Amino acid sequence: MAAAAELFSNRKFWAHRFGIAPELPMSREEMDVLGWDSCDIILVTGDAYIDHPSFGMALIGRLLESQGFRVGIISQPDWLSADDFRQLGKPNLFFGVTGGNMDSMVNRYTSDRRIRTNDAYTADGEGGKRPDRCVVPYSQRCREAYKGVPIIIGGIEASLRRIAHYDYWSEKVRRSVIMDSKADILVFGNGERQVVEIAHRLARNEDVKDIIDIRGTAVVIKHGHREGWWEKDSTSVDTPGKLNPPMDPYQMKTAASCDEEKPKDKMADGAQVIHFKRAEIKDKKHTVVRLPAYQMVKDDKVLYAHTSRILHLETNPGNAFALVQQHGERDVWLNPPPIPLTTEEMDGVFDLPYSRVPHKQYGDKNIPAFEMIRFSVNIMRGCFGGCTFCSITEHEGRIIQSRSEDSIIREVEAIRDTAPGFTGVISDLGGPTANMYRLACNDKKIEESCRRLSCVYPSICKNLGTDHTPLINLYKRARALPGIKKILIASGLRYDLAVLSPEYVKELVTHHVGGYLKIAPEHTEEGPLDQMMKPGIGTYDAFKAMFDKYSKEAGKEQYLIPYFIAAHPGTNDKDMMNLAIWLKKNGFRADQVQAYLPSPMSAAAAMYHSGKNTLSKVKRRGGDITVPKGIKVRRLHKAFLRYHDPENWPMLREALQKMGRADLIGNGKKHLIPTWQPAGTGDKGEGKRVRYSSHNKAGKSFATQHVRSNSAKSKPAKRRRR
Predict the structure, then answer these.
(1) Which is nearest to 574 in space by CA: 646, 660, 702, 667?
(2) Which residues have C-beta within 8 Å of that of residue 270, sequence separation ≥ 6?
(3) In the predicted model, is pLDDT for residue 716 greater than 80?
(4) To which H or E segment does residue 477 belong?
(5) pLDDT of 269 above 60
(6) d(CA 560, CA 551)
(7) 3-state DSSP call for residue 242?
(8) 41-45 and 94-98: which strand pairing?
(9) Fold category of 14-224+327-334 in CATH
(10) 162 by DSSP, 3-state: which?
(11) pLDDT, the chain, mean
């Protein structure tokens, strides 16, 4: 893997003499108090400003401050005019624009495309404080406010929209967000290295148009061949020939790719095996893969799936090529992913002088997202799970970046000593995943050359280090601190890794569960689990057995709360029915259920849009999967998850009849839903209780409805007198 300059190695910008701000300013009055006549960098964000490392604008802002720059914040501006974008004056170096901690469309809309009335990242949870796809209008207003000022976009919204991408809300393929926003540079992934280098290069009076070579950035250049680069054409779905197949643009190895075993020259039956040697890349550092153009993928779903697969296979910083995609007369050029931060660099970022509270302008207003994380500690970033529906891997990468134990303990102590309202309970000690802390490939060379989409699917790679000892030691040290009553673990737990360490499960269950532990098996059936790249339900059963065992040994009554997804690509009605049967058999009644939402650029979103399995080579013929689309089928799949809700029973009865499973309708324990309908529920029998009857045979329709009054016993009608 290429070496990267140490994050804090740059000479500080001259403005460092102004010192550290108690909180980054949001007004000219605050700038005056600090003695600033201007800001060097202004960050525009769709979230309320909370000076806490869990919030991107605070982390990047404090990091730039540590480099000597004066950083101001414009939070949730009115995007209908440029006035709010002028409130801190003209930045000397650039505007940094982010949608916030969430993609604005995911933040604003439900999976059924209904607009949300609240926003967890806004004071008092008020909805409507950010526009759709807010990176675009924010960038346009910045340009309108001060022409000629460079605009750098980043954060998860820009990161996941860096190439042509399927947009679930408009049901079309949209251009790269750098094209629509007309930004100068797009920063993707964790942006510390990129933003620091951009800031220092602009401070040295480099033209922003010349800053096109930074890893983890995308830029727009003139369409055509770039001098000094060798272009690898992957603009079409490959059709292998008989003797000399074209180079496979995917270059993906199997799950056993790390094995040292050489291929044999003869099969068991004596047949000769011909080995084709892949053409050598002329210069790996100066090789770019040309993706199918936006104009092609917007109308060709198979090409879109092909493009998505290439993108996901070019995400390892150790071996990824640059990518380029034509948009009209211009090219969007994506440099290889950024080099992950070292432990020392992670410590430096999280040890910066955050106030850890919302900006004072919010007063006593409640910001729900802050309430969730105010007593939590982020110990790592990244995820090698590769779940196709998740955006963590696409944004943060597969290589785990961990803080040191000392740095984490310092933050726990800072919360204990300074956080208002702290009662001694740390609400979470985790990150994107609870138990990937310090886990990594056992061989750096293998890690740098690996092209697997997941280290744990279809099975855990034999080269993956799964030792949970560093995490166990961290838990023990943190819970032993004076003044700390409890350390809870609330992050997503990879139970397929946890079962490999009984000692970890015992520590977790004995000391770090507050009665309930949420985990995410996501489904029980092989079809959807394969498309999710998740382990089978048997792994959940193994973890539950360990969880129950250690809970009993600790003398605690504790429960697992499993999460499941409805309507994921690869799921059919039978899969959801079987999941509902499993839920009832195991006594689970979900209060809230999650319907799959295709997030931009995720592998599952490509499956949803194209109907193709992108986990194997994409072909014109074959590789088709079931995709539950449309309100009716999505609601049915959600209804199966909430089989116990009477409002869903009419829909489920109708579906079970069509599926030939009317035997699941009845009033016994073996039945999924009853034959009767409570008064005032469902779409029939309003105000009355309805009992449906049938012979409970597959394929039989419910020909009879028995209607009775709400009273327990109906009185006989009095005989009318003549």
Answers:
(1) 660
(2) none
(3) no
(4) helix 469-479
(5) no
(6) 11
(7) coil
(8) parallel
(9) Rossmann fold (3.40.50)
(10) coil
(11) 90
> How far apart are the C-alpha atoms of 430 and 437, rounded to whole Å?
8
Residue 267: both structure tokens together:
């099969």
Which of 128-142, 382-396, 687-701 has the least mean pLDDT? Answer: 687-701
CA distance 587 to 35: 63
**What DSSP character marks residue 405?**
H
Decide if pLDDT at 602 tops 90: yes
Q: Where are the beta strands (DSSP E) in 125-195?
A: 151-154, 165-167, 172-174, 185-187
Cβ partners under 8 Å of residue 690, min gap 6: 676, 677, 682, 684, 705, 706, 707
Domain spans in the chain, listed from the N-terminal domain onward: 14-224+327-334, 649-722
* Share of residues in the chain with pLDDT > 90 (%): 84
The mean pLDDT of 618-630, rounded to a whole number, is 94
List beta partners, residue 256.
none
H or E element at residue 97: strand 94-98
First to last CA, the chain: 100
| Predicted local confidence at residue 572, as pLDDT | 98
Strands annotated E in 373-510: 376-378, 380-381, 401-402, 425-426, 428-430, 486-487
Q: Could you tell me where the beta strands, DSSP code E, fall in 329-422?
A: 330-334, 376-378, 380-381, 401-402
Listed in sequence order, the residues at least 6 apart from 324 whose beta carbon sits closer than 8 Å to its beta carbon are 226, 231, 288, 289, 290, 291, 331, 332, 333, 334
Position 418, amino acid: T
Give residue-wise pLDDT tens across range 313-332. Answer: 999 999 999 999 999 999 99
Angle at 601 between CA 236 and CA 50, to 5 degrees: 155
Backbone angle region of 254, left / alpha / beta, with phi > 0 → left and psi within -120 to 50 → alpha: beta
> pTM (2 decimals)?
0.90
Residue 458: cis peptide before it, omega within 30 degrees of 0: yes
Continuous segment of H or E residues that includes residue 594: strand 594-595
Comparing CA positions, the residue from 433, 436, 381, 439 lying closest to residue 192 is 381
Strands, E assignment, 389-547: 401-402, 425-426, 428-430, 486-487, 516-522
Under 8 Å between Cβ of 12 and 61 = no
Q: How confident is the model at residue 276 (pLDDT cuts 50, 70, 90)?
A: very low
What tens digit of pLDDT does each residue of 237-248 get?
Answer: 865 444 344 445
